[in-house]
Amino acid sequence: MTYALISLPFLAIGVLAAVITARSLPRPARRRRWIATAIAAAVLLALTGVFDTVMIAAGLFGYADGTRLGPTVGLAPIEDFAYPTVAALLVPAVWTIVRRRAQRGGDDED
C-alpha cells in the first residue's frame, strides 16, 4: 500500500468537512474562511517542505521506494503534504462545529 492511498480517506474527510461547514456560513464569512484556509495551508505546506527535508536529510526517518509516488519537494515526498493540508481544512471545520454547539448549549443552559 502506498502512502498516497493511506492519505486519501483523510483528505476526503477534510475536504468534505470543510465544504459542508463553509456552506453553512454567510457568504462574506465563507469567503474569509477560504482565504484564511488557503493562507494557513500555504504556511503549513512551506513549513512541512522545509522541516521534513531537514529531518530526512538528518536521517531521522525515510520512505521505502515502492510506497511513494515519486515526486518530491526537497527530500519530502508529495504524500507528506497530505496531513498538513487535512489539518488546514479540518481545524476551521471543527472550530465551526464546536462554536455552533457551544452557542446552542449556551442558549439552553439559561
Radius of gyration: 17 Å
> Which structural class fits the helix and strand makeup?
mainly alpha
Amount of helix: over 70%
Number of distinct beta strands:
2
Q: Give the N-to-C terminal Cα separation.
A: 52 Å
Strand order of the largest sheet: 1-2
- Mean pLDDT equals 90
**What overall form do the CA principal axes indicate?**
elongated
Q: Strand count, sense and closure of the main sheet?
A: 2 strands, antiparallel
* Beta-strand proportion: under 5%
Which regions have little confidence, pLDDT < 50, spanning 5+ residues?
none
Q: SSE order, as H and E?
A: HHEEH
Number of helices: 3
Any idea how many domains? 1
GO cellular component, one term: membrane
Protein name: C50 carotenoid epsilon cyclase
Membrane topology: Multi-pass membrane protein
Subcellular location: Membrane
